[in-house]
Amino acid sequence: MIKSDIIAQANDAANAKLKADYDALGEALDRRGIDIAAIKSKVAKYGVAVPSWGVGTGGTRFARFPGTGEPRDIFDKLDDCGVIHQLTRATPSVSLHFPWDAQPAADLNSKAEEVGLTFDAMNSNTFQDQENQQYSYKFGSLSHTDAATRQQAIDHNIACIALGREIGSKALTIWVGDGSNFPGQTNFTRQFERYLEATRQVYNALPEDWTLLTEHKMYEPAFYSTVVQDWGTNLLIAQQMGDKAKCLVDLGHHAPNVNIEMIVARLTQFGKLGGFHFNDSKYGDDDLDTGSIDPYRLFLVFNELVEAENNPDFNPMHMLDQSHNVTDPIESLMVSATEVQRAYAQALLVDRTVLEGFQESNDALMATTTLKHGFRTDVEPILAMARLEAGGAIDPVAAYRASNYRAQVSAIRPQVSGAGGGIV
Ligand code: LRH
Ligand code: MN
Ligand code: MN
């Protein structure tokens, strides 16, 4: 963790400017009939989970260029996640991936307590083969033609639930790479029937207070067809399973230009929006930093979430899911967490009564201008003040760089080589 005097020193240097900016924004919002303190308090309560796999440097199938001080295991990863939350106060939980993060529950719990974090959704992995695994997932997992392979995938998911119960998780996220690479390779219907039957076994093993999140993705690793390819199939799964099953929307898992905010609205309307994997993309599942390409789209997603916020049954899970190839993952995740908060704060600023009036009178121009007014507002002073008051850093990246954390962990974590990495 980072020493508190380093954070205090960095904050002291930025405090006077922040106060002036916050007061000025408060006055401007007051003229719009908005109480800045109310927005700040909602932002302060907002949290987004960090993916354990996000704190290691990512890569592509061509290469991986590891940074210095790469985490060696889940315990190093939890240290890094602790720093992200310490500085941003926006990431109180971590989402684990199994078997990548498999360790005894007691050890995971004591490390999480040490760094002040809890565990979010469990992620199973039946898209890769593991050492000593009996059956291969080369031709699928939950939808495989072979019953024993399907059973192996079912058992893995049930084992994830068992471990999750011991570490306080309340959800299992399933994403499968199952699909096909050639027309005719699989029978779409029979493959989906097998998937549904196997997923039913996992669903039946869920504790009462758990949620099953299924994640759709258009393509990759299968390049002709994917079993759970879009939100339509995902919704069918959630409907077939029952009340505890909901859909997870990973922003990068759609074709370019798909209207994701509308998918969010539809799933919300029918009580089936279970959670998010936030990231950004230009072409496909790029796993770029959240808000780095199209922050307006992120805002439009949050506009739908704020619209539904007053429904007591509406509580989707929020998580980042990114791959950091050229940045320090801690810095990227800190910035991304604040980008999610920013979109939330901007969406909170939209005057919904006025917007509805323009919608009802079909004033398209004024409706879209009303919406955009929220997006155009620079809410950084609100986010920074919420962080400061919670003991975080006014400028998380500046405080992180001042702390020399990466250099310090590099002294104990061995340098990893990227030579030959990547699979073309
Ligand atoms: C698939 C995915 C899914 C996996 C993660 C590593 O592309 O988004 O959420 O669990 O990446
Ligand atoms: Mn994902
Ligand atoms: Mn993905």
UniProtKB/TrEMBL annotation:
Keyword Manganese part of the UniProt annotation: yes
Keyword field contains Electron transport: no
Domain of life of the source: Bacteria
GO MF term list: isomerase activity; metal ion binding
SUPFAM superfamilies: Xylose isomerase-like (SSF51658)
One Pfam entry name: AP_endonuc_2
Xylose isomerase-like TIM barrel domain boundaries: 93-287
Keyword list, A-Z: Isomerase, Manganese, Metal-binding
Cited InterPro entries: L-rhamnose_isomerase (IPR050337), L_rhamnose_iso (IPR013451), Xyl_isomerase-like_sf (IPR036237), Xyl_isomerase-like_TIM-brl (IPR013022)
NCBIfam families: L_rham_iso_rhiz
Name listed for the protein in its UniProt record: Sugar isomerase
